[in-house]
Amino acid sequence: MRILSHARFLPLYIFLFCTSFLSYGSAHYRGATLPKVSIRASSLGAFSTKTTIDLNKKTLEQPKTLKDALNEQSSVNFSQMGGLGSPSTISVRGGNPNHTRVMVNGMRVNDPSSPDGAFNTAGVLPQSFDRVTLEKGAQTAYGTDALAGALTAELNKGEGDFHHTAQAMAGSYGAQMGSYRIKGQYNRFHANAGFAGLKTQGFVTKPPYLRQFPRDNLKDKSQTVNFNSRLDGDVGERTILTLFNRYEDASNFFGNTFETNPFWRADGKKSQHVMRLNHSHDVSVFEEKKGQMTHSLVVGHYETSSKNRNAFAPFGNGYQYDGQRTLFAYRPEGGGDAFKIKGAFEYEEDRLKAYILGITRDRISKEKSHTIGAMVAPSYRFNLPNSQAFTVSGSLRRDHHSSFKGITTYSYSGVYESPVKTEISASYATAYKAPSLVQLFPIGGASVANPLLRPERASNIQYGIAQPFLEMFRAEVVYFKSNIRQLITSESLPLTKWTYVNRSRAKMSGIESSLKWKRNGLGAFVSHTYVYTQDCSLGKSLKKRPRNVISTGISYDRDPWKAGVNWVYKGKGYDADPVASQKGDPLASQKIIRGKPAKTVDAYASYQVNKNVNALLRIENLFNYRNEDPLGYEKSGFGIYGGVKVEI
Q1: What pLDDT, on a 0 to 100 scale, did the predictor assign at position 373?
Q2: 453 CB-near residues (< 8 Å, 6+ apart)
C-alpha cells in the first residue's frame, strides 16, 4: 500500500488497469475466449512526443535559422538577445535553455565554455543538415542536460548517383544567404558534404525608450558560416566506418545590447570531428527467429571558442573562453520483431581555458571534469485481441561525475492502441544536469565559482491521447508536469559580482493540444500550449516563459506551387525589468515585470520552374508588428526575401 501512495507509479497502474479491462471487455462482449497473445514488429507506438523534421523540404520555405524551421512546434520557445546573429537559446516545456540537450552527429554539443552550458542556436543554419529530431520531456537515456528535452541534428548517408544542390537568397536588412551540397555514392564510398553562409546588416534592436548612448542606435550586423560533411565507407559486408566533420564560425557586432562601447563585438567558433564504426549481425531473440544487433564504437572531439571583446584592443579588454569535449562510447542497439533494446557505455571529458584579452592574451584559468555513464533501455510490444496493441518501454542509467557522487536516473512508459486507432500514452522519467565548468571553477571576470553546487534533478510525468479521424484529421492532447530540484540560478554579490546557488525547487506544468488536417495537397493546423512555471523559493514565475502560445497555419502543395501562411502568438510572460538593467541596478534581475504579447505572420511560396529549378519567396512579419521578445530586444519588422534553389 505504501508503494501505491507514490504518484510516479500512477501511469503504470492506469495502463495495467486499462489494458486488462479493455482486452477483457472486448473479448467478453463478443463471447470469445482470449487467444494467445501475438507479438509483431513495431516502433514505440504512433503517438510520441518525438518529432522529426525534414529540413530538405523546409528549404522551400526559406528558413534562415533553426528558429524559423522549428517555430511551429508546440512547447518550443526561442529567446534571442538581438538580431539574427545574436545569442539564441531554445527552451522546451518551460525549462531553462540549458535543460535542452543538443546533439550533432551523435555527440553532445552543449557549449562547455558557456556559463550555464546552454547551446547557442544562432550559429546553426538549417541548410547544413538533412533533419532535426525534437524530443520533449525528461530524457533518461541521454544523461546530463536533458531535463526538459533533447534536440538532434543529423546528416543522411549519401546514396545513389552524385547530385548537387545550391540555394541563394537575398532580402531585407541586407540579408544574403547561400548554400551548396553534394551527395551521392560511388561503389562502397558514400559522401554528403556542403556549406552554408548567412550575412546580414541587421537592425536597431534596442527599443526607443531604452536608447541613451551612441551604441543604442547602431545596427546589429552579423555573419555565420557552416561546413558539414559525412563520409561513409563499407569496409565489410556488415561493417561501416563513418566520419563526421563540422565547422561553424559566427560573429556579431555590438553583441551586448546593454554594452555602451560602440566597438564591442562577439565571436564564436566551433568544430567537431566524430568517427563511428558500426557492425551488425543476426541474432535470435526469445521465440523470434530473426533479429539484428548493431554495435557502434564512437570517438568524438568537439571544440568551442567564444570571445566577447572590444573590436580594437587599445580601447579596452575582453574575455576568451575555449572549451573542449572528448567522447568515447560503445552503443549496442537492436533486437527482434517485438523485443528491442538499446545500451550505452560512455566516457566524456570537458575542458575549459579562460583568457583575458588586451594588448596580449593571458590565460587566467584551466579546468576539467569527466563523466562515466552506462545505460540500458528495453522495449516490448504486444498485439492484443481485436486489433489492439500495447507497448511498454523503460530505461535505466547510472553516471559518475568527477565533481560529485554517482547519480541514477530511470524512466518507463506505455502506449495503448485501440481498434479505432486511438492512442493513449503515459510516461514517467527522471533526469539530471551537472553544473558547468564555469559554475564550478574560478575563471575570472564578474562570476564567482561555487564548488559546492549539486546537480539539478528533474522528474517528469505526462499523459497523452491522439485520435485520427475521417482519414484527414488528427487531434492530440498532452498533459505534462515537471519538478526540478536543486535548480541552479545566479545570485548577486557585492562589487557587481555574482555567483551560482542551488535553489530549492522549480515546477512546470501545462497542456499541449493540436489539430491537423491534410487532404489533396491542402493542409491546415492549429496548436495551443499552456505552460505554468514557478520558482518555488521565490513564489514567482520563471522568466522568459510565455504562458500561452498559439500557432496556426494553412498550406498548399500541388505542383508546381507550394505556399503557406503561418501565424504565431506568444502571450504575456514575466521578465526582468529592462529599465532597471539600463540604469545598472544591482537588483535588476529580481525586479520582474509582465511583458506584452508578441505576434507575427509569415508567408512563403515556391514555384517549380522546371525539374531542376525552384523560385522562392518569403515574407516575415507581414503586418509589421512591433514586438519585444524578450523584453528589451526588438524583433525585426516587415521583411521580404527572394531566392532560387537548383538541383542537378
Answers
A1: 96
A2: 435, 439, 440, 488, 500, 501, 502
- For 300, phi and psi rounded to 5 degrees? -140, 150
With contact defined as beta carbons under 8 Å apart, do 140 and 373 qualify? no
Give the number of other CB atoms < 10 A from CB of residue 433.
Answer: 27
Ranges of residues in the chain whose predicted pLDDT is under 70 = 1-48, 215, 253-265, 285-289, 308-317, 358-363, 444-446, 495-496, 584, 586-589
Q: Among candidates 76, 74, 73, 67, which has minimal Cα distance to 97?
A: 76
Cell numbers for 304, please give them. 568551442
Whether the ω angle into residue 468 lies within 30 degrees of 0, i.e. cis, is: no
Residue-wise pLDDT for 342-396, tens only, equals: 999 999 999 998 887 766 666 677 889 999 999 999 999 998 999 899 999 999 9
Q: Return the residue matching grid coordinates 472486448.
A: 26
Q: State how far the alpha carbon of 15 is from the alpha carbons of 42, 384, 392, 430, 435, in Å.
A: 19, 14, 10, 19, 36
* Rounded Cα distance, 444 and 568, in Å: 41
CB 355 within 8 A of CB 362: yes
Q: And the C-alpha cell for 217? A: 542606435
- Report the DSSP beta bridge partners of residue 392: 380, 414
Q: Using alpha carbons, select from 523, 620, 525 the residue that is nearest to residue 84.
A: 620
Alpha carbon distance 541, 595 (integer Å) = 12
Q: DSSP for 323-387?
A: EEEEEEEEEEEEEESS-EEEEEEEEEEEEEEEEEESSSEEEEEEEEEEEEEEEEEEEEEEEETTT
In terms of C-beta distances under 8 Å and separation of at least 24 residues, what long-range contacts does 638-642 make, across chains too? 638/172, 639/171, 639/172, 639/173, 639/175, 640/171, 640/172, 641/62, 641/64, 641/169, 641/170, 641/171, 641/172, 641/175, 641/617, 642/169, 642/170, 642/171, 642/615, 642/616, 642/617, 642/618
Q: Rounded distance, CA 596 to CA 581, Å?
A: 18
Pairing of strands 505-519, 497-502: unpaired
| Per-residue confidence (pLDDT) for residue 3, from 0 to 100 | 37
**pLDDT reported for residue 495:** 67
**632 dihedral zone (left: phi>0; alpha: psi -120 to 50; beta):** left
Cell of 342: 538499446
Asked if 110 and 120 count as a contact pair (C-beta separation under 8 A), the reply is no
What per-residue string of b and e applies to 520-543 under the rule 16 or more CB within 10 Å gives b?
Answer: eeebebebbbbbebbbeeeeebbb
**522/516 Cα distance (integer angstroms):** 11
pTM over cut 0.85: yes
Work out whether strand 100-104 and strand 149-154 pair parallel, antiparallel, or are unpaired. Answer: parallel
Q: Identify the sign of the CA torsion 401, 402, 403, 405.
A: positive
What is the maximal distance between C-alpha atoms in the chain? 89
What cell does 623 get?
Answer: 503586418
d(CA 207, CA 588) in angstroms, rounded, equals 18
Structural domains of the chain sorted by starting position, each given as residue range(s) with its CATH number in brackets? 40-647 (2.40.170.20)
Contact call for residues 469 and 501 (beta carbons, < 8 A): no
Is the link from the previous residue into 560 a cis peptide, with omega within 30 of 0? yes
- The pLDDT of residue 471 is 86
Q: Report pLDDT digits (tens) over 55-64.
A: 888 877 778 8
Put the strands of the sheet holding 107-108 in their side by side order: 50-54, 131-136, 149-154, 100-104, 107-108
Q: What is the pLDDT of residue 359?
A: 60
d(CA 205, CA 633): 5
The answer to whether the CB of 326 falls within 8 A of the CB of 352 is no
The grid coordinates of residue 375 equal: 545505460
